[in-house]
Amino acid sequence: MIEGAGYRHEIFIRNASPPGVLYVFIDGDGSPWVRGGMQVAPDATSASTLALELATQTPRSVLYLGRPCYFHVRRDSGCTPDVWTSARYSDRVVESMAAAINRYTAASGFFELVLIGYSGGGTLAVLIAPRVPATRAVVTIAANLDVAAWVRRHGYLPLDESLDPTAQPPLPDSLPQWHLVAGHDRNVPEHISRSYLERMPPERIWRYADFDHTCCWVEQWPEIFARLDAALRETGSIH
């Protein structure tokens, strides 16, 4: 468990050899709604935590950072339903997660980190990056990077308390990004994030034609991570 800014966060840690490069994993939105979207879930934590599965397979130092009010910290006093619904990508959520990462890296001696976010966790990774000075790269997996377009596609209620990566100032060129997209993703098809992805060099968008939103990231992660780790080192993003 680690304190953020107004929220506590569940964590999973495996340190290989600090100080060095830390890979920080952030999971998706889980299950904010039940009964076909008619009722707010009392607990948005999903039984399937894909980013945590990726973290456990990563042969480097890792920090899996739980989102505010997910896991058993949902009982904390600040955990109102908007935290996992309309405000799931809000400034206060982003600030608390950034504060937790900064606190952990300062205490643990890590001076370089790579943010890796899956689905809505990728949305958060992009939003968190400018607030974490040690960030050297951002990687998203099946992420909804244009929140407004994603909401329109699914007919969701507006996430009117949330930030939208497409509407934020672009991350600096000195902070490289890689975005992994799936050819059969019905939740976040690539065209949903087009307005954001058009900012990227083509070689930083990795397409996996046979994958969907959940398959086959975990199964193929060892190969994907090896490719990613090599790209990060070849570009000088990490040392």
Q: Can you put this structure into words, describing what you see?
A:
- The mean pLDDT is 91.
- Helix 1 (50-57) crosses helix 6 (217-234).
- This protein has a single domain (2-234), classed as Alpha/Beta hydrolase fold, catalytic domain (Rossmann fold).
- The strands form three sheets. A seven-stranded mixed β-sheet has the order 3-7-4-8-9-10-11, with helices on both faces. Strands 1-2 form a two-stranded antiparallel sheet.
- With 239 residues, it is of the alpha/beta class.
- Helix 3 (120-128) links the parallel strand 8 (112-118) and strand 9 (135-141).
- The protein has helices spanning 50-57, 91-108, 120-128, 147-154, 194-197, 217-234, and strands at residues 2-3, 8-9, 11-14, 21-26, 33-34, 39-40, 61-65, 112-118, 135-141, 177-182, 205-208.
Key words describing this protein structure:
single chain, 239 residues, alpha/beta, Rossmann fold, seven-stranded mixed sheet, 6 helices, 27% helix
Topology of this protein?
Layout: E1 2-3, E2 8-9, E3 11-14, E4 21-26, E5 33-34, E6 39-40, H1 50-57, E7 61-65, H2 91-108, E8 112-118, H3 120-128, E9 135-141, H4 147-154, E10 177-182, H5 194-197, E11 205-208, H6 217-234
Parallel strand pairs: 4-7, 4-8, 8-9, 9-10, 10-11
Antiparallel strand pairs: 1-2, 3-7, 5-6
